[in-house]
């Protein structure tokens, strides 16, 4: 009787979950993208990479061209292991607290492309800027919404 009971328990264990014992490791969720530490050295590297990429790119003339330009110049030129959107989120928060490297990073990644479009006489609407910043990976949608709120209050215009 005890042998039957233990055999039945063993069979139930194998059928109800014992097979998972033979399965591979459970997949883990991908790690959240990391923000680049905002040090003077890292910001200088971003500045240099962006400057080199800008020199090699043709002048954008449409909103779609600005989005592609932003990705090539401001995102693909330096990202490596870092997430530009996560770094911009961090920089926005640190800049409010007075961090100079964060402000320099925002000057490179956010204000520079606005200045370029203004100097070239290209006017982009708020939704075009959303497409440029969020679509290229420079900002998250939440960061863009917060940035536009600060912009309307006159707090972030360079």
Please explain how this structure is put together.
This protein is mostly helical and 158 residues long. It contains seven helices and no strands. α2 packs across α3 and α3 packs parallel to α6. It is globular.
Fold blueprint:
Elements: H1 2-16, H2 40-56, H3 63-75, H4 84-96, H5 100-119, H6 126-136, H7 141-152
Helix pairs in contact: 2-3, 2-5, 3-6, 4-5
For this entry, give a set of tags.
158 residues, globular, mainly alpha, single chain, 7 helices
What's the total helix number?
7
Low-confidence stretches: none
Q: Taking Cα atoms only, what radius of gyration do you get, to the nearest Å?
A: 25 Å
Give the fraction of residues assigned to helices.
Answer: 55-70%
End-to-end gap: 84 Å
The description of the largest β-sheet is: none
Q: Tell me the overall shape.
A: globular
Report the average pLDDT across residues: 83
Beta percentage is under 5%
What is the number of strand segments? 0
Quick structural gist:
This protein has 158 residues and is mostly helical. The chain contains seven helices and no strands.
